[in-house]
Design a protein that fits this description.
The complex is a heterodimer. By secondary structure, chain A is an all-beta fold. Chain A is 0% helix and 46% strand. Chain A contains no helices and 9 strands. In chain A, the strands form 2 sheets. Chain A has a 5-stranded mixed beta sheet, with no helix packed on it. A 4-stranded antiparallel beta sheet of chain A has the order 2-7-6-5, with no helix packed on it. In chain A, β6 and β7 form a beta hairpin. Helices cover 0% and strands 48% of the residues of chain B. Chain B has no helices and 11 strands. In chain B, strands 2, 4, 5, 6, 9, 10 and 11 form a 7-stranded mixed beta sheet that branches. Classes of the chains: A mainly beta, B mainly beta. The interface between A and B is medium-sized, with 32 and 34 residues.
């Protein structure tokens, strides 16, 4: 059962780059790493997904070292609206087994002016 | 298609009553998931469907909970004999199952249940 560990909370300021690291020491060969964002009273929203090295989209970048035992979500130039809870998930997408559907408590990111 | 929709958005019920929630996924998505979320916690997996087949249920899902997806489109989640501990946000998500491509789930706004 692939388990993830994230910081409970982080603070930063507008315009800064924020990096949130997730540990997943027991990641399996077929597992992907997926990050979600959740605002209060809303469902989570998919941010980014990767398998190895670096993935970048219009919202964030995801850095995955060669051993894949951790990953770092990078949010460039954050704004107040990036204040949210960020979840890291690990799973193989096969749909079997609930391990890839375990959100944990996430990281509560607070952006200050 | 504007995304995953859930109805009702809020439900207040008395302990012991039955409640039913509905989820309409994104039309071409073959996978549908139900989660429960309480304050300060991440979403907790309850069950999931691939088309009309219910493929997995969490051990946390008591026999008071039942879910259906009769035609592989919308889904309903019913809670019988509600208890105060059932008070939570119930989230539905859908995805296009892509095998090893990982999880990219699209969530609805949720149904907030309050049991008094």
């Amino acid at each position: 059962l692939a388990k993830t560990t994230q910081p409970i909370s982080m603070d930063s300021y507008e315009g800064q780059e924020v990096n949130i690291t997730c540990s997943h020491n027991n990641i399996a060969t077929n597992d992907y790493i997926t990050w979600y964002q959740q605002f209060p009273s809303q469902g989570p929203r998919f941010i980014i997904q990767g398998y190895k090295t670096k993935v970048t989209n219009e919202v964030a970048s995801l850095f995955i070292p060669a051993d894949r035992k951790s990953s770092t979500l990078s949010l460039p130039r954050v704004s107040l609206s990036d204040t949210a809870v960020y979840y890291c998930l690990v799973g193989d997408g096969s749909g079997g087994g609930a391990d890839g559907l375990t959100f944990g408590k996430g990281t509560h990111l607070i952006i200050q002016p | 298609d504007t995304g995953v929709s859930q109805n009702p958005r809020h439900k207040i019920t008395k302990r012991g009553q039955n409640v039913t929630f509905r989820c309409d996924p994104i039309s071409e998505h073959n996978r549908l998931y139900w989660y429960r979320q309480t304050l300060g916690q991440g979403p907790e997996f309850l069950t999931y469907f691939q088309n009309e087949a219910q493929l997995e249920k969490s051990r946390l899902l008591s026999d008071r909970f039942s879910a259906e997806r009769p035609k592989g489109s919308f889904s309903t989640l019913e809670i019988q004999r509600t208890e105060q501990g059932d008070s939570a946000m119930y989230l539905c998500a859908s995805s296009l199952g892509r095998g090893l491509a990982g999880y990219e789930q699209y969530f609805g706004p949720g149904t907030r249940l309050t049991v008094t």
